[in-house]
Every structure is written in structure tokens, then in C-alpha cells.
Amino acid sequence: MKLPDKSSSIEAAIAQIKDGATVMVGGFGVPGTPFTLIQALVRHGARDLTVIKNDANEPDMGIDHLLQSGQVSRLITTHLGLNANAIRLMNAGEITVEFNAQGILAERIRAGGAGLGGILSDIGIGTELAEGKQVVAFDGKNLLVEPALRADVALVHAARADTFGNLAYVATAQNFNPLMAMAADCVIAEAEQLLHLGALAANDIHTPGVFVDHVAALGALSKEYAVVRR
Amino acid sequence: MKLPDKSSSIEAAIAQIKDGATVMVGGFGVPGTPFTLIQALVRHGARDLTVIKNDANEPDMGIDHLLQSGQVSRLITTHLGLNANAIRLMNAGEITVEFNAQGILAERIRAGGAGLGGILSDIGIGTELAEGKQVVAFDGKNLLVEPALRADVALVHAARADTFGNLAYVATAQNFNPLMAMAADCVIAEAEQLLHLGALAANDIHTPGVFVDHVAALGALSKEYAVVRR
Amino acid sequence: MVARAARELKPGMVVNLGIGLPTRVVNHLPADFPVCLHTENGLTGIGPTLSAEQADRNLIDAGGAYVSTVPGSAFFDSATSFALVRSGRLDLTMLGAFEVGANGDLANWKIPGKFSPGVGGGIELAQKARRVVVLTTHTDRAGNPKLKDRCSLPLTAKGCVARIFTDMAVIDVGQGGFTLVETAHEVSPSEVADATGAPLNIPETTLPRF
Amino acid sequence: MVARAARELKPGMVVNLGIGLPTRVVNHLPADFPVCLHTENGLTGIGPTLSAEQADRNLIDAGGAYVSTVPGSAFFDSATSFALVRSGRLDLTMLGAFEVGANGDLANWKIPGKFSPGVGGGIELAQKARRVVVLTTHTDRAGNPKLKDRCSLPLTAKGCVARIFTDMAVIDVGQGGFTLVETAHEVSPSEVADATGAPLNIPETTLPRF
Fold first, then answer.
1. Domain range enclosing A214
2. What share of chain C is helix, strand, coil (3-state, %, to 5)?
3. For residue D36, which phi and psi values (nearest 5 degrees)?
4. Which of C100, C107, C205, D83 has the fewest CB atoms nearer than 10 Å to its CB?
5. What are the residues of chain B with a beta carbon less than 8 Å away from any beta carbon of chain A?
6. Touch criterion met for C and A (3+ Cβ pairs within 8 Å)
């Protein structure tokens, strides 16, 4: 037996994304954002997307390109503070935005990846974030039902990958990537290094390749990946 | 700033365990079972323990010593198939046993470690494992409430650790250890190698030391850790 | 029967083989067959079973056998291991059975009063694998059918079994109950029907033999 | 004020410092002070902030500043990062505030109609850290008190704030509302009371100054 090969071109992988799809996108700020996959999705042009991402990057970076091209109708996120363009679109009603507490967004995605229906949490009770949420009385406490989130497609960025789709991240580029890499029907990974089977130590793999559908090698990194000079 | 030192002797760490405590114990079969911590708990003698562990090891191994010494009143587990002694104690009513589906036990422990109230799952619906469980109707489906599990103490085994309590596991000795290492008020780790700060690569740490209270170096490994010849 | 069951594995699949007979299916696969074997204690990419002399003390499968890795294997914790199962990444599981119902129900973990070691990981494999097939002897040691109209033992999961491989036959389980697909050499369809505790649909075409 | 707040960190603590003023607390700690700094984007063991020339493009804190590691740092995903917070492993967080109520309520994420970028990780820090202290100017830019009987803005978390550090004073928040603990040099207790939008308990003893 040998493990199947899932290496793919970026264009072929992204071409599967349909209008109306729900798309998870990794990253927290610059680190871990799959800038190259996002640019390919802009070129591909699928519309009416629901995007799930921690943040909206910054103007003219990352998913801001998808916002500017009008491909996004709904955004499930935690914080838009660095992207005034996203806030403007939200305030103008051109995109619908659902805000989650950051760790709850992480857990909802993880629950989707773990095949659970949801989680029970007390986060946000007594604040407007709890409004409208289903409440379950359990063991004398009221807990909020936080539904699992899954997506049609997840776009993730890894530092290193092998051809089976095993992924390893570095530093704070990990963030939402390992969670989203479990939580979509089609998981597409871009990797700075795409290596042969066995090149990643079995103990140091962050995302087992079994969760990944397509893995694509990045060439030279675009300037979006670079250190931001403010 | 430097990270605090949590290195400890095994005896001093185990001495904190009180009668009536709930104790999680890592391991799935031999790999990952903290045999030395278990032996110290036998010598310490705390009684009326609730033990949470995937399995009951085998006769005269691991937590079977705690069962034989009469220190365990309740066992939350998934499978006792390799320990006829545990099954005998269960059938004789000398210990109470709660069986969980294996992945649900893992998720309940993880939920405890993640500060959640519980998870919602459809596992076991239509079988006797669902009997008596609270049901939540959500999004047109009935889901079972699986309460989070936390313990007073978790005993885990790591291959390598540093003095802050960062832990790395090898091979299938990972299993329940990283989950339990997040889910107890007092987490005690035994490590085959206890290394200086910085010896573990920050990207390859399985359990961040922030979850660990005491870390103890193992000397020569006892025969319980060895390959079992059947 | 094991060799026949091995043909159930298709290229690219992620597969979990239950303890016992199913584990032996790997011996019938070509060396370069592209498949990912999963074991629920935390490994994808199971390599050959090792003797005690060759074994790594930290590397077992869920049945306790000492196994090895292949290039590209990954280790992970028990939560991730079942996340994979429950979220639909497991294409196929092969399990043993005490009983299979004509409605696809599976009972393989408990015999009240006699055998109750706990359910382990079987319930999630049976309920969540995309395809569940059973490998079992056609009858129990006393000669009683294991394939029944309805299971009498506590269920592992409802309506989960798609196909059954026995020493006598390959049988599909669907809307219409049990349907004979293949028979073992020297076994006739009517012999299979006699050893089955529920109606068996027998196609009028000549069935393959294995 | 920042120097005074730094004394709130005790040896062995796990601490999360919010964006802005709180981040500057680290500049007032001795080099060998035993503490673990956490940032919610996935790092324990934050080292010094780096310039763009020295920066690692993959290593930032939750505020986007380029930081570094210390010996023993660990990286992890966002689920683990908040698991740590929610499960009680975070001993202390220092946050900014728009308003603090005399009942300990905190509002620091939204001004309806003006500012609503999303709650980010603040709600879990405020609700679940074992001790929540606030660093803020005593009044807003218009001179209105930030310490009020009750918050008027949408809450981040209820009854979470234990202590407030401002440019004028250190104030504890407890059952009896606000209690003055220390004052800044050249600031009198009555000046603090005047700038506070709720009753301020002033002990009769001489208060320390910072």
C-alpha cells in the first residue's frame, strides 16, 4: 500500500468552487492567509460566496480582493478592525456580516470538522452576542447552542506539505488553518514547500492528509506574504 | 521574562491527590500509559477515586494495580476487553463502570479542556448508549447532550518535556494524553526526557506547558513500558 | 472470503479494518495499491505488522498489534482520530458482527449477561463510515444464523451495513433486505438461503463465485 | 500608570495583555521575571517586539505587532488558544475600556452607529480570565467619565472587572462598587471622585501614590 497523491494545480483545484458556495479561509492577519488561493478565486470568479474567516485582512490584501470584486455576499467573522473597506460594505448593506467571539468561531469550525452538531458554551451570556441563540438548561446552568460550521471548500496555507496532503504550519501562521482543514467537503491547501511522502515527520504533522483533498505548491511568494511596514 | 519552572518529583506531585478525587489517566493500551505515576498513586493510597481512562490496561499492569488495591470506586471508560479483572469487579458491583463511545469520551474530555459545557452529537442515537441522555432538537435534528468532562487531576505520559511543561508525544502514545493534559485542575506529566527550556521546537509541541502544573522526569523505564509478548 | 473482501477497497480510499478477520485483508493488497489505512488509536498510514522483536513499544493499532508506518504516515490524538470518522473522511470500514439485521442494523459489541466489555470505537465506525461492510462467519459456533430479520442483541448502529462477506457468500443489504451477490465455491444459493435467518433475494442470473 | 500596572503581574502567572496600553506593560518587567505571556492568535511565551527589518513574517501577536519567542515558547491553533482562556488557565488579562460599570461590567468593543468592527477575542478574555484588570484613561477625550454606575454601551462581559488602572488612580471594583486604592502623584482623592461617574469609596487611611 502507498498513500494516494493529491498534488494539484491551484487553478484546477479552485475551478471546483461554485457560485453560492461557503468558503472557509485560513489566516489571522497576514500569517497563514492563503493569498495565492484567494487570488485564484478572484480570477475564477465564483459569486454569491459565504466566506468564513477570522478577519477581513487589510485593504487591497487577501479577502479584500474578493470583497472588492463583489464575490462575497456574506461574511462570518470575528473582527474587521483592520479593513475599513469591509466595514463600509457592511454598513452599506452590500455584505451581511455575522460576528462571533473568536474562540467560539474556532470551536464551531472545529465541531464541524469533528462531525459534531455543535457545542454548548456560556460565552456571551448577558451580552448582545447571546441574543437569538438557542438556550439549553443543563446541570442547573443555561448554556448557548453554538452550531457546528462546515463549508463546501476550505482554503488553507501551510509552510510544508507532502503529496498525501499532510500539512505543517509555522509560528502564528497556524491559527485557523488546522481547524478549517478539517471542516470542509473539499479542502485545498497551498504549501510553500510541497515535499515527497515521508519528508514530514509523522509526529510533527499538524493536519493529517486524510482531511485534505488537494495540495498545491506555491512558487515565489507574492508581496502579500511579506512583512507589513506600517 | 522567562517561563516558570514546573519540574517536580513524582511523589510530591502525586501527594496532592485526595480521597474521592476524579483522576484522568492517559494511554490506549500500553503506549502513553503513565505507569510510573500510577504506581506512585498506588503507594500514595488515595481512595474512592473516579478514574477516567480509555481502557483498564491488562491484569497486573497500569490501572489494574489501582483496581486491585481497591482505590477505584468508579471508572469512566470505553472498553475493558483486555482486563478480565476489571470486568469481574464490574460484574460483582465492586466498581461502577460508565461506558462511552471512544470518540465521544475523547470529545467530552476535550470539551472540558476547552472550557465548554458539552457537545451535541448524534452518536449512539437508536442504541442503548443513548438511553437517559438529554436530547436537544436543533435545526430539525435530535442531538444528544454529551457533558464536558473535567478531572481534579490528570496523569499523562510524554516522550519529551521541558521544565515549563511543554510536552511532545511519539507514535500512538499520543492518544488521550493531549486531551487529558488540558482537562484537569492539576495536570501531572511524567516524561522520558525532561529537557531545558528551548529544547522542544515551538512548532512541534503537542501540549503547551500552560496547561501543565507539574512535570517529572522518569528514570529507567519499568518493564510495564516494554513491548508485550503475547 | 478475506481475499474477496480485499477487492472492496478502491484506489484512493481511507479505510478502517476492524479487529480480527478484517485486519487480514491487507495481506491481499498489492504493495503499491493507493489506499490509506486508519486505526482509531491515532494513525493514518498503517504499515506491516511487526513481531515482538521488531516492534516499537509506542506503535500499536487499536487491537494492540504492533504495526509500522509507511512514508506519509501521521500520528494524532484520539479526538482527531474520531473527528476523521464522524466528519465523513472514512470511506470504508470492515467490521465483525454478532448479528446483522435485514434492515442493515448491526450488533457486535454486547451479549447481555455474557459479554459486555464496552463499545470502544465500534459505534462511531459503524454509524459514520461512508460504507460499512461486515466480515463474519455465516453462522455462529452453534450453527445459528448471524443474518437475521431483526437483531436481538443491543445494537451498535442502526441501518448501517451495506454488504456482508461470509465464508458462504457475499450479500448486499438494501431496501429489500438481503440480496445474494456471490457465493463461495462449492456453495449453492439455496444452501446460503438455508443458513440465513431472513428472506434472501436470489437473482435469476448466474452469480459469480469467489 | 503602565509601570504601576506591571506590578499586578505575579511570578508564575499566565497573562494576556490587550492591544494598546496593556501591551506596554512588558517594558516594565525584569528580564528574569517568571511569567508566561499569551497572545490569542496562538502563542505562549511572547518575546520582545521586533522592527520590520528583524521581523518574522509568520510571527505576530493578536494586535498585528511583530513579536518574537523566548526559550520554551509554544505555537498552537486558535481553538487551543481559547481553550486555555475558557478553561481557567489564564491568570490575568489587562484590557482597554470604553466604560466600566460600578458592578464590574465592561464595555470595550462597540459604539452603536459609530464603531462596530466585531468583538474578536475580547469577550472570552473578559469573561474567563481569572482576574480582569482594565487600563484606561480616566475620562474620554471629551472629559466624560469612563467609570460609571452602569455601562450604557453594549457589554463585553458582565461583572468581570476586578481593578482599574487609570492616569489618575488605581480603583478596585467589588460588592460595594468602586473603591479608591492608590492615586497618581499630584492627584487628590476628591479629584478622582469628581472624574468618576459613580460613587467612589475613599478609605480614611492615607493612600499610596504611584
1. 10-116+149-220
2. 15, 30, 50
3. -115, 115
4. C205
5. 107, 111, 114, 116-122, 134, 136, 138-139, 141, 143, 145, 147, 168-171, 202-204
6. yes
- Residue B144, domain member (yes or no): no
Annotated catalytic residues of C are 40
Beta bridge partners of B157: B190
- What is the number of helices (H) and of strands (E) in chain A? 6, 11
CB burial readout D47-57, b (16+ within 10 A) else e: bebbeeeebbb
Judged by CB atoms closer than 8 Å, whether chains meet at B79 and C59 is answered as no
Taking the C-alpha atoms of residue C90 and residue A60, their distance in angstroms, rounded to an integer, is 40
CB-based contact C46:B145 (threshold 8 Å): no
d(CA C46, CA C60) in angstroms, rounded, equals: 10
Return the DSSP state at A221: P
Q: What is the CATH number of the domain that holds A45?
A: 3.40.1080.10
What integer pLDDT is reported at residue C19 of this predicted model? Answer: 80
What's the complex ipTM?
A: 0.97
DSSP letter at A43 equals H
Catalytic-residue membership of D40? yes
Phi, psi angle pair for B124, to nearest 5°? 95, -5
Nearest to D90 by CA among D132, D31, D153, D58: D132
Neighbours of chain A (3+ CB pairs under 8 A): B, C, D
Cell reading at B81: 476487553
DSSP H helices in chain A: 10-14, 35-44, 64-68, 84-91, 102-113, 177-180
Q: Chains with ≥3 Cβ pairs under 8 A against B?
A: A, C, D
pLDDT at D116 over 90: no
pLDDT of residue D155: 97
Instruction: Let me know if residue A5 belongs to a domain.
Output: no
d(CA B181, CA B192): 16
Residue A32's alpha-carbon distances to A54, A57, A229, D29, D57, in angstroms, are 11, 11, 18, 31, 10
Q: What is the spatial distance between Cα A118 and Cα A111, in angstroms, rounded to a whole number?
A: 6
Residue B143 lies in a domain: no
Sign of the four-CA dihedral A18, A23, A29, A30: negative
Q: Widest CA span of chain C, in angstroms?
A: 54
Ordered structural domains, chain C, with CATH: 2-201 (3.40.1080.10)
Cα-Cα-Cα-Cα dihedral sign, residues D25, D30, D35, D38: positive
Q: Flag whether residue B162 sits within 8 Å of chain D, measured between CB atoms.
A: yes
Query: Nearest CA of chain D to the CA of B108: how many Å?
Result: 13
The fraction of chain D above a pLDDT of 90, given in percent, is 86
The amino acid at D121: G
Q: Residue C116 — pLDDT band, cuts 50, 70, 90?
A: confident
pLDDT tens digit sequence for D130-160: 999 999 999 999 999 999 999 999 999 999 9
Does B68 fall in a domain?
yes
CA distance D127 to D125: 6
Beta partners for B117?
none
Q: Name the domain count of chain B.
A: 1
